[in-house]
Task: inverse folding
């Protein structure tokens, strides 16, 4: 963690568990202006780790017979996904990102639409949307209006937050309860998490770090976005948690105590999915499979929102776990062609993950 901090991350903190033993640590600062240190138990916006919680909630409803994995989403939400698309896109395709529905982010944040051409990008819409309250249907409509990323059910998925906002609307439709409330009662509470919640306002409750966004050098120096209305990601990436809570959640999930064995097996059926950064990941139903060469295979998810990054991995038997939080994101600056370049932070984080999971 010290090496990650010295490579350029202001603050890094997390927890490692191994066969009943627990290590917690932190390095660096939570506030670059005051020098306030980061602490291992701080709360963090965990970004797309939220997707595993949402997927688990959907699978609970599958177990109860209220949702069918391979049913068309138009059977449940014809007002949101009408016509042929509603008939062809299934619940499973939303969960594993093979729906072909693009991400709404370039349309909700129009100053980022030129990405990956950084010359055509600015941070204006990040500032404009800081206190904007989006409705899920508004964001979903943006994704559906954009050109499809592929035919529904294709062999390679394309990661899209639009899918998980639709899943949130699906949960509300079949349970009669707002999705965030259902997930809180039936996933967060079932896992015994005491410091995990959907935010009700733009501020993080409890001890937390400032969250610095660089957006590949477009924002220099990096700007603090820790105060932000998270309606722009909702059931896709809005959760606030702690690293001990995240570890506990994945341990409970992989032990079959959040969903049953058959549902967990469905969640762990992976396909290649192209991530927002252009890389390809092994993605199941709301969960990643990670392979560390010479070390093994692990389950978990990564998460980023403006200014905050989180990575979590758990061994298949649940005995080895790591959850790590950082308070600077998209630090790679571009070369003359505009392509973000490798940075010492990248190698320092890889070393931290290997040390945590493989030593």
Result:
């Amino acid at each position: 963690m010290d090496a990650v901090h010295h490579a350029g991350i202001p603050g890094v903190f997390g927890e490692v568990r191994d066969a009943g033993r627990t290590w917690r640590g932190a390095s660096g600062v939570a506030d670059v202006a005051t020098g306030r240190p980061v602490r291992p138990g701080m709360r963090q916006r965990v970004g797309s780790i939220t997707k595993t919680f949402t997927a688990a909630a959907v699978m609970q409803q599958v177990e109860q017979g209220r949702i069918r994995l391979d049913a068309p989403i138009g059977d449940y939400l014809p007002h949101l996904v009408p016509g042929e698309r509603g008939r062809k896109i299934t619940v499973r395709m939303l969960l594993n990102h093979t729906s072909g529905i693009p991400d709404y982010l370039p349309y909700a944040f129009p100053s980022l639409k030129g990405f990956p051409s950084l010359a055509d990008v600015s941070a204006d819409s990040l500032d404009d949307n800081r206190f904007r309250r989006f409705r899920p249907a508004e964001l979903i409509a943006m994704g559906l209006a954009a050109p499809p990323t592929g035919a529904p059910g294709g062999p390679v998925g394309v990661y899209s937050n639009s899918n998980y906002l639709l899943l949130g609307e699906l949960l509300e439709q079949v349970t009669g309860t707002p999705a965030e409330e259902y997930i809180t009662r039936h996933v967060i509470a079932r896992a015994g998490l005491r410091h995990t919640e959907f935010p009700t306002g733009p501020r993080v409750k409890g001890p937390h770090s400032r969250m610095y966004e660089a957006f590949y050098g477009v924002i220099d120096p990096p700007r603090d976005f820790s105060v932000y209305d998270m309606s722009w990601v909702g059931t896709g990436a809005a959760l606030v948690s702690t690293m001990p809570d995240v570890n506990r959640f994945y341990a409970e999930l992989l032990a079959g105590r959040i969903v049953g064995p058959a549902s967990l097996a469905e969640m762990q059926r992976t396909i290649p999915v192209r991530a927002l950064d252009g890389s390809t990941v092994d993605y199941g139903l709301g969960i990643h499979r990670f392979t560390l060469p010479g070390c093994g295979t692990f389950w978990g998810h990564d998460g980023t929102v403006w200014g905050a990054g989180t990575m979590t991995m758990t061994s298949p038997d649940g005995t080895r776990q790591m959850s790590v939080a950082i308070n600077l994101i998209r630090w790679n600056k571009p070369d003359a062609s505009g392509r973000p370049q490798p940075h010492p932070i990248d190698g320092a984080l890889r070393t931290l993950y290997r040390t945590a999971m493989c030593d």
